[in-house]
Write a structure and sequence with these properties.
The protein is of the alpha+beta class. It has 3 domains: 170 residues, no CATH class; 81 residues, no CATH class; 146 residues, no CATH class. The protein is 30% helix and 35% strand.
Length: 436
């Protein structure tokens, strides 16, 4: 993305006239935007953002850091990160050198441009530099091609950040389904005896207050939303909010900090503590802690629990917190599952799923074998063999939808072609001068 190209002598002088394709007003706007000094500042800020975003994963999860640092307009960087860097890598003495999680005297924060802001200004800087300083000619075809590839890569990241979705499909042998579970979002669902359901999205659950809607059987007061929970032995007695493992051991659900980018071994199990209120009143019918540990697709069918129920207008509703469900116009049924291990170890050698895909809208009706290096692609989604469920009785397929998946590959090819063209033309010019 360098803008230090062979600009003609005096190209940066105040006497230079605007390019033919720009007006005097546009020239005044584009000239400072195309500044090389701005390019250096943007690169420096980008390096700082990557540095602090990497450090932030000591305390926060990867996706939290991605959202706060790289897919945002600005970020509040805690001053504590600087202290932690000194304690970890340079053994600088401090009040938290032995325990970085203890209360800190390094309070406060400082602002830093987020990834989207830096990427947007970089894109504008690159385009403005071409309009102001660079002449479009065959001699510069290589440089122009390289920069076009870089622009395409930036656009690809934007598309990925806005539209990419990661989810999973959990199936036991002989089971078919027409929905996938969003990996990063949850919802609260009320289901009646007839199977009709009403859902409350995560955006409402993350805001404390009372949720009242005509479609809900009761009013819901959100006491607290937790990004992550863990399981502890129940220690006897009945725990209405707990779960029972396959071996009969009972566990209780307890809030905990989110998994960090350096230690997390599983997806965070979100939870919400809610009160069920009689509609239009403040009468509390029940108070429960609902967690993803009570959702069998999250636990891989390893835990059992009794889901809470609420009654309203003579009807009984089952209440559950689950991953956000995305219903599809097709069905996938698991016919066969294979899981092979290396002899004498528990290390996976190969695992594969044979599924039956039926899509009435496209007329597809076929069997597909999905293995570790051979995914299924359908309707812009890719199904990867991801995990097994408890007892090797089924599979967990990771489902990825990314409309911009091709752009990074295409941009790399374009950049490579541009580099070959640029250096090839310079090499040819050098050899011709030497021969002369």
């Amino acid at each position: 993305m360098s803008t230090t190209l062979d600009a003609p002598a005096g190209a940066e002088s105040p006497e230079r006239q605007p390019a033919r394709h720009t007006t005097p007003v546009a020239w005044k706007v584009l000239r400072p935007l195309a500044s090389l000094q701005l390019t250096v500042v943007l690169f420096s800020l980008s390096m700082a953002l990557v540095f602090f975003g990497t450090l932030a994963q000591v305390d926060k999860g990867i996706w939290t850091v991605v959202d706060e640092y790289f897919r945002s307009w600005y970020v509040k960087v805690p001053v504590k990160l600087i202290a932690m860097f000194g304690w970890k890598f340079f053994e600088v003495p401090g009040p938290e050198a032995s325990d970085p999680t203890s209360p800190t005297v390094w309070t406060g924060w400082f602002p830093l441009p987020g990834g989207w802001l830096l990427g947007g200004v970089m894109l504008a800087n690159l385009i403005a530099a071409h309009l102001v300083r660079f002449k479009f000619s065959w001699r510069r075809a290589g440089i122009i091609t390289i920069h076009f590839g870089v622009i395409l890569m930036m656009v690809g990241e934007l598309v990925t950040g806005l539209y990419a979705v990661e989810s999973r499909m959990v199936l036991q042998v002989g089971e078919g389904t027409n929905f996938i579970d969003h990996s990063r979002k949850v919802e609260l669902v009320f289901t009646d005896a007839a199977g009709q359901s009403v859902t409350v999205p995560q955006s409402l659950l993350q805001s404390s207050g009372i949720i009242s809607n005509a479609q809900l059987p009761v009013d819901v007061e959100v006491v607290e939303f937790y990004k992550n929970t863990d399981l502890l032995p129940a220690g006897g007695g009945d725990d209405l909010d707990g779960v029972v493992r396959f071996d009969g051991i009972r566990f209780k659900v307890v809030p905990t900090s989110e998994g960090t980018g350096v230690k997390s071994e599983r997806e965070d199990a979100a939870a919400v503590r809610v009160k069920f209120l009689k509609k239009g009143t403040s009468e509390v019918l029940a108070e429960r802690l609902l967690s993803l540990w009570q959702y069998d697709n999250y636990t891989g069918r390893q835990y059992l629990c009794v889901l809470p129920q609420v009654a309203s207008d003579g009807k009984t509703y089952q209440v559950q917190l689950r991953n956000e469900r995305i219903v599809k116009p097709y069905t996938v049924e698991l016919n066969q599952f294979e899981h092979k291990q290396y002899t004498g170890t528990t290390m996976a050698k190969d695992f594969a799923s044979t599924v039956h895909l039926v899509d009435p809208q496209t007329g597809e009706d076929r069997q597909v074998r999905i293995s570790m290096n051979d995914p299924l692609r359908h309707r812009g989604e890719t199904f990867y063999q991801h995990q097994t469920i408890f007892g090797d009785t089924g599979t967990v397929l990771q489902v990825v939808k990314n409309p911009g998946w091709l752009l990074p590959y295409l941009s790399c090819v374009i950049v490579a072609v541009g580099m070959l063209a640029h250096f090839g033309m310079n090499l040819a010019k050098f050899t011709s001068r030497r021969a002369a």
